[in-house]
């Protein structure tokens, strides 16, 4: 078995992978809590940790066409959400390089 590097986040309020409980993101990096994921509500983050990127693909989302990568927990490989690689509409450009994490797949710790 290979050694896996797991990054730990500091701060009082952390989102963890619900499946394996490694840190995924900090409350400080939430940009919006009002997004729609595959499984219901989702949060938009400026940065996340301990994730692997899936292949780049074009996807039509509620807010139009985007180029995205699915993101997986690097510890348990569970799908957690996606990353916005490129947005085509001017009003959506701010999301480029940001991450969606599904609320359903997250464990909130310290709230
Ligand atoms: Zn996990």
UniProtKB/TrEMBL annotation:
It comes from the Eukaryota. The keyword Zinc applies. This is Protein yippee-like. Residues 13-110 form the Yippee domain. One of its GO terms (molecular function) is metal ion binding. The lineage of its organism: Eukaryota, Viridiplantae, Streptophyta, Embryophyta, Tracheophyta. Keywords: Metal-binding, Zinc. Belongs to the yippee family. Pfam families: Yippee-Mis18 (PF03226).
